[in-house]
Amino acid sequence: MRNAPIARFQTSLQTCADLSRTGKVNRKTTSILLFAAAFLLALALPVMPSLLNNSGFYGMAIDEPGENLDGYQPPQNGLSVIFFGYRQCGTVCPVQLVNLMELSQLLDGTEIEFLFVTLDPENDTPEVLDQTMESLGQAFKYYRPETHRAAQKLASAYNDFAVKQGSSEDDLIAHSAHLHVVTGEFRRRLVYTTPDLNLKLVEQDLRRLLKDKNSESST
Hints:
The protein has helices at 4-22, 27-44, 48-51, 92-106, 126-136, 148-157, 199-218; strands spanning 60-65, 79-85, 112-118, 140-143, 162-164, 173-175, 179-183, 187-192. It is of the alpha/beta class. The chain folds into 2 domains: 4-48; 52-218, 3-Layer(aba) Sandwich (Glutaredoxin).
């Protein structure tokens, strides 16, 4: 069953709690049980989005307006997958960008674009971003807010967070790694909250959403 890792994770946590209350476990055993619980949670992450909603989508289905991006227009009859990140990020950004590259190959020929919104416009210059998007593929675009503060405000409008860890231009930025799927009208329809994704299921989501959107347009 798809939710088996979640059930095992919950069972492990309950076992830890029960044994701790009865005093029948030492500190070493508790550490082992907690490690096992964390391992089972890691196994559950790829299917977590689909367990949090009953829409039939793997991702989290929503239907609410997103913030317009001046100068960028998603495909009118297609979709755009938006990701907030920055080039010097060495944690979640490389993983999520690899995900997006693989998705772009799986969805080649569809009206789906991938938009990288930089959280570090002070360092991510247009020239650098042009080179990065060219290396990622034709389906990739970028959006560069004027300042980090403007990028932070935009991320917040999409329920993302971005916090610079210091006051200099070279400081790291702590941020979420969500993927936001929007229509040509900037309506947010799907959100993926982790970079640990089953890309085949994401592909199925996007093809289904694209089909549903085109069916609505033809009626």
